[in-house]
Amino acid sequence: MATVDGDVSPPHDIQAFTDLDGATGVHNEGESDGVYTTFWKFYRNGDAYFTQIFKPRPDINIAEVKEAMRRIPDEDIYPEIPEGVNLKEMTTTEKPDNELYIKRPSLLTYETSNPREWIRDVFLGEAQIMEQVSSIQHKNIIQYYGCLKRDRRLVGIVLERHKCSLTEFFLWQMDKDKDKNGTIDSQRFMEELESAIFHLHQAGLAHNDLKPSNILLDKDNLPVLIDFGSCRPFGARLMEGGTPGWCNNEKPVMFSDKEHDLFGLDRIREWLANPDRALYG
Predict the structure, then answer these.
(1) I need a labelling partner for 125 at 20 to 30 A (CA). Which of 1, 30, 77, 256 fits?
(2) Residue 138: CATH number of its domain
(3) Nearest alpha-carbon partner for 105 in 127, 82, 85
């Protein structure tokens, strides 16, 4: 089980599963205690809470989660900003909070990451690459406003919020009120997505994890590329990258390469054209 501060009482504002920021379930075959579910919640000031409950998700109620939540020590997940690393600090913006998205470290593997240096390094790396990407602005690449810091640690990456991901759009299309979401012009969508990817390539960068859930939609249902955790200069070694089904199994995603993006573009083009598309990724 993950180690967290035992002296901090759980956050009592959690009343429903929708109050949480994430959950994931794990089932390890052949292990009596191999079934568990993790839940987490981040607060605006950066405080993060987490719990691991050894039950499948359907058997857990929100009262159990609320009672079990404990605060994560900052040093577990938030990296210290090294001397010489300059990250723009976000102080004010003309946009209201509901138009901003604060990205936090991924807690998908918090309970199994030991040491947790990997979580911190990936998060710091994404902030550094967002600084670089923001210097080559493109209308189909997510807008970056800066970082949130606390005690010399990076606690958040502030981005522009959009209505949904490409995957979520098609999930909503299954709803009876699907017409309210409009439609997607696949040809124009792909042209603008390609433009964003080629813009990265011209700067010597590859995204390395192109998939529907890493593409948001703007108000005109056109693409906005997000999730630059795997974006690196050509040839750089990757800490993570590629998602099964969206990368070429014959070319392992170990180093940054524009070929990963070209393969992803082809897969997304096929996916958009398929009315029986699988809604994952």
Answers:
(1) 1
(2) 3.30.200
(3) 127
